[in-house]
Amino acid sequence: MSVTRHYDREFVRTFFTSPTAVDGEEDSAKMLRSAGQLRGLQAPDVWVPDNEDATAPNMREEGVENIIDVVSEQGADFPGEIHPRVVWHRESPSTRYQGFQQMLEIADPENGAVEHIDGFVIPEVGDIDDWKKADEFFTIIENEHGLEEGSLSMSVIVESGEAELAMGDLRDEMGKPSNNLERMFLLVDGEVDYTKDMRAMTPTGELPPWPELRHNTSRGASAAGLIAVDGPYDDIRDVEGYRERMQDNRAKGMTGIWSLTPGQVVEANTAPLPPKTGSWLLEAGGQEVELEAQDGKQVYDGDDLSLEADGDGGYVMRAGGERLELDEDELTEELLDRTAYIPSMNDIVDSMEEFEAAKEAGKGAIAMTQAATLVIDGVEVEVSKDRMWDEATYQAAQTPITLFQDVYEHRPDQHEELEEMYGADVVERATAVGN
Predict the structure, then answer these.
(1) pTM of the shown model
(2) Per-residue model confidence as pLDDT tens digits over 394-427
(3) Which residues form the Malate synthase H C-terminal domain (predicted)?
(4) How far is residue 315 from each of residues 291, 325, 329, 341, measured CA to CA in Å?
(5) What is the CATH number of the domain that holds 112?
(6) Would the CA dihedral through 167, 169, 171, 173 be positive or negative?
């Protein structure tokens, strides 16, 4: 079975939830209206008017009305996709029926919202039979309202061991004539309820990081041609922690993450994109430290590593309590082992263009050289490393460019900010390379 995507987006960076009705406010849809007005890097790829956990049970009926009012009014101008989240539960038929009624009302063409709605998010799913129950409701709604079957996409939140195991069944179930599961779009982790379902505990009461769940969700999405999204990072002031979580996720193939505030949306929208400028890293004190670029050289200004010339053509390096006596070649090798380079957008485009030109000339592989002058305690050392580029290397390097191209195609409201970030020339080349 080959993986076929049934939607335009290949990447989703941001999954932003908004309460649909807030009790005690003169306008209970105030937060919904505010979210619907977000633009540029503050606007998510997927906006989720949340009529489940983010909205009190006694406000959900009003929340449905608010979704209809706000999406009808603002949906045409919202730059991302709109996927309301309704109630559902794998063990509660009455809750599933409530979710069906919510979707049925929101999707009614006479209410004016459905033309701007891309799909619905279903929480608290269970085994694959439960996913098919939700899919059947979607099909009924589409037929009831004269919508094309499959026109409403379905995303699920993985919040239980049952749902995690169901991802392994999805690849075989999609495409069967007894269901319309080709409508699937996002697999979203919900670590809070997953922790509860697994009866997991930590000494501090904080959530476990659940790297296994994030890996399994990314794998399940890849196998079924879907998109994986991580759950909420609720310490909204911990920007660095949010960045580290996203970096760890991207190494698993999971680009998207839940965003709780417009500030998190900006972070999540920009973090997966290649950096504007390249940077060199040096391993010192058990961690990678970014070197400071000064006059074309890369300067280390820390205390965890020191270097001095011994006056006889050799060098003495001290690192982690260890004293190393090295000649020039040994020093170069030691620093090569300790350094890494993070390429900029321009670097990646340059390399891809160079490989494309070489391939056009009949070469199957070429060497790409990275070189720098490192400065440690005033001592300068020239380092360079060659990396062989073949078709596989090219394809791997293309992923961040494909992401950029996907963003540029589907988010024209971000064009101006992207050109300010990279420069118009780099943006033009990045949108053309690889095509």
Answers:
(1) 0.91
(2) 998 899 999 999 999 999 999 999 999 999 999 9
(3) 280-395
(4) 21, 6, 10, 24
(5) 3.20.20.60
(6) negative
